[in-house]
Design a protein that fits this description.
heterodimer, A: about 270 residues, alpha+beta, Thrombin, subunit H, 2 domains, 6-stranded antiparallel β-barrel, 3 helices, 12 strands, B: about 180 residues, mainly alpha, Arp2/3 complex 21 kDa subunit ARPC3, globular
Chain lengths: ~270, ~180
């Protein structure tokens, strides 16, 4: 009886099992196989060369000029901090990576970049672009990494007003990825149009002081606390190259509740 | 004709290549944004189209199993596996498989495009409900977002359906015809 049934349905049962477990394997490994294959396809034909066009060359030289100035200021800053007796460990190593893929679904804000663990990228590293913070590496394969953009709904980044140090939390705007909202913790925060927003010193997953955006307008009537509309300084919709910076998430000294654990992708 | 030449084992192995190859191609298409393939920055729901092609004329249980597998694959490509694609995909698979039994769906690609349009809209609605239930966004945000995403991806998916779904549907028709012999 059973043998007959098995002869009729055995093969399809086994195939269903194989198919389902393959899909579950993909899901548990976060699609490493697909993403790696995709990266190989994109990277085919040797290394990706940076585009060299007159306009870009001009931009590059401008960028170099600014970089030089930043380096100079950085050095001065360091010396001043040393004078003040500040201790700081700085990771200046950065890995350049091309953007090779976009989000697979419109409800998520993410990108895939063309460098992975072979280039030294690890989970939790910070991704920046021209203009400022872009996001955070959430998954790494040998030749690619998946990056959660700062405008993604699960990335609630702690930010602060650069001028007045008022703290808030950043939430991506649903209508346009280039804009975001900052809800403040204070009832009456000191924030004005044109203020610069940077990552907060209280942020666990992001280093302090990375430029995020600029305040466009402030809505004081929003409940429970005022909300500022900001324009992100990194052009998230037109990203082509990004810079990955090594960063170790700070240790938390308390247990996260399960519902708080969304941003850590566990 | 070719039906006599192709032996069942050969067709079966080609069928596996078609299944895995099309899944791989569609997963990779999801990650790309080819100019002219997007509306408002949104791209078609490739895996959903695959699932609809799979579910047409298939038994309900196989359609649902396909939905779970494709849902897992889609979840694997996102930064967070929750909210999941599986609930929406299961609804789509059940609707597609049972609508076929009632013979609403014709053979031509226009009704297939219409089917893809409706199903994409349904799947996106279920995704929006999940976002609401998980408290990821406010209701007004979800309402706006849902309209934009659902409409644009439904329009795009149905436009691409003749090119992606129809060949798959035809192929599985062919396989079924061979198996019946």
């Amino acid at each position: 009886m059973f043998r007959r049934w098995w002869q009729r349905h055995g093969l399809s049962l086994v195939l269903v099992g194989v198919g389902l477990s393959a899909a579950l394997f993909l899901r548990q490994t976060q699609g490493v196989v697909i993403q790696e294959f995709f990266a190989l396809l994109v990277n085919m034909g040797g290394t990706i060369e940076e585009p060299v066009e007159p306009e870009i060359l001009l931009q590059n030289s401008k960028l170099w000029e600014l970089q030089n100035r930043v380096q100079e200021l950085d050095q001065q800053n360091k010396q001043l901090k040393e004078l003040l007796g500040y201790m700081e460990t700085q990771n200046v190593e950065a890995i350049a990576a091309p953007v090779i893929g976009r989000s697979a679904d419109s409800w998520w804000q993410q990108i895939t970049i063309g460098q992975g663990s072979n280039a030294g990228i690890e989970e939790g590293y910070i991704v920046t672009g021209i203009g400022g913070l872009v996001g955070r590496v959430t998954q790494v394969t040998p030749h690619s990494s998946r990056v959660a953009l700062l405008s993604d709904v699960t990335q609630q980044i702690g930010v602060m007003v650069s001028r007045s140090r008022y703290q808030g939390v950043l939430k991506g705007d649903t209508a346009d990825p280039q804009f975001a909202q900052v809800s403040f913790y204070e009832k009456v925060p000191d924030v004005e149009k044109g203020d610069m927003i940077t990552t907060s010193n209280l942020s666990v997953l992001y280093p302090q002081g990375l430029p995020v955006g600029k305040v466009l307008k402030v809505d004081y009537n929003a409940g429970p606390a005022p909300v500022a509309m900001i324009e992100l300084s990194a052009p998230l919709v037109a990203l082509e190259w990004v810079k990955v910076i090594a960063f170790e998430p700070k240790e938390l000294d308390f247990e996260l509740l399960p519902e708080q654990n969304v941003s850590q992708n566990r | 004709m070719s039906r006599k030449i192709a032996s069942p084992t050969v067709t079966r192995s080609i069928n596996y290549v078609v299944i895995f190859g099309s899944l791989l191609v569609f997963s990779i298409l999801l990650l790309t944004r080819i100019p002219g393939m997007t509306i408002l920055g949104f791209s078609p729901q490739w895996l959903l189209m695959w699932l609809i092609a799979w579910s047409i004329k298939r038994e309900l249980i196989y359609a649902v199993i396909g939905a779970i597998a494709v849902g897992w694959i889609h979840d694997s490509l996102m930064i967070t596996p929750i909210p999941s694609h599986i609930p929406g995909f299961i609804v789509v698979a059940v609707l597609t498989a049972s609508w076929r039994q009632q013979r609403y769906i014709q053979e031509d690609f226009i009704s297939l495009a219409l089917l893809v349009f409706i199903m994409t809209f349904a799947a996106e609605t279920i995704m929006a409900i999940q976002h609401l239930l998980l408290g990821l966004r406010s209701l007004s945000d979800i309402w706006l977002e849902h309209q934009r995403i659902a409409l644009s991806s439904a329009v795009l998916s149905s436009l691409w359906a003749p090119l992606s779904c129809t060949p798959l549907v035809r192929w599985w028709d062919h396989v079924r015809a061979l198996e019946k012999q």
